Amino acid sequence: MQNPQAKLNYFIHKSACVETDKIGSNTRISAFVTIEADVQIGNDVIIHPHVTISSGVTIGDGVEIFPGAYLGKEPKGAGATARKPEFDRIISIGDNCSIGPNSVIYYDVKIGKNTLVGDNASIREKVRIGEFCILSRGVTVNYNTQIGDRTKIMDLTHITGNCEIGNDVFISVLVATTNDRAIGKLEYNEDRIQGPKIEDNVAIGAGANILPGVRIGMGSIVAAAAVVSKDIPAGKMVAGNPARVIKSVNEVD
């Protein structure tokens, strides 16, 4: 049954707890949704049951948020982490994005328009994601990472903290990126903890491992299961453990 706010041209289920009045037209908020104050919701938004949206979140027009998603999680280390999280209490979700079931988006994240965040994905604080991207099922993106436009990251891939990924990049399933050559044996130091730099138009095959601080040059290809421990020049294909250049990309069949 529609509540009295229906005259404002949006629907809120009677079991939802909604503390904001900044809701666009033709928006539908389903059962058992929790939305705190200071949330802005655009037009034609669909919020499915059991979604939680914390204060400071801005949601663009045409966004769909599927059941169980959590937008605005505060990062806390519980005294166990070497790195102290720093963040602003904001999230921006661009127009026409899709946020999958049970995905978790921490504070201080900006996602460009027409981007798909898959089921059970996790996006940590200070992450910036471009337009027309795909973060598929179970993808994890760690803190302070930049992802360009039209980049696709496939199922169960981990993007480490302090990582840079360019435009039009394809990263296949089960890829691991890392940022600490000491493997946790030294104290956290922002200057030392550096993820890979993956330039525009790179393609990375399934199960590859990209080690800390390496740069993968524009247009390169990393073969499946390769272990990349050194920089890769632009336009080259690498394979093996450790990864070595086997040909130029223009020689690939």
TrEMBL record:
<dbReference type="GO" id="GO:0031470">
    <property type="term" value="C:carboxysome"/>
</dbReference>
<dbReference type="InterPro" id="IPR011004">
    <property type="entry name" value="Trimer_LpxA-like_sf"/>
</dbReference>
<keyword id="KW-0677">Repeat</keyword>
<dbReference type="InterPro" id="IPR001451">
    <property type="entry name" value="Hexapep"/>
</dbReference>
<dbReference type="GO" id="GO:0043886">
    <property type="term" value="F:structural constituent of carboxysome shell"/>
</dbReference>
<dbReference type="GO" id="GO:0016740">
    <property type="term" value="F:transferase activity"/>
</dbReference>
<dbReference type="InterPro" id="IPR050179">
    <property type="entry name" value="Trans_hexapeptide_repeat"/>
</dbReference>
<dbReference type="InterPro" id="IPR018357">
    <property type="entry name" value="Hexapep_transf_CS"/>
</dbReference>
<protein>
    <submittedName>
        <fullName>Transferase</fullName>
    </submittedName>
</protein>
<keyword id="KW-0808">Transferase</keyword>
<dbReference type="Pfam" id="PF00132">
    <property type="entry name" value="Hexapep"/>
</dbReference>
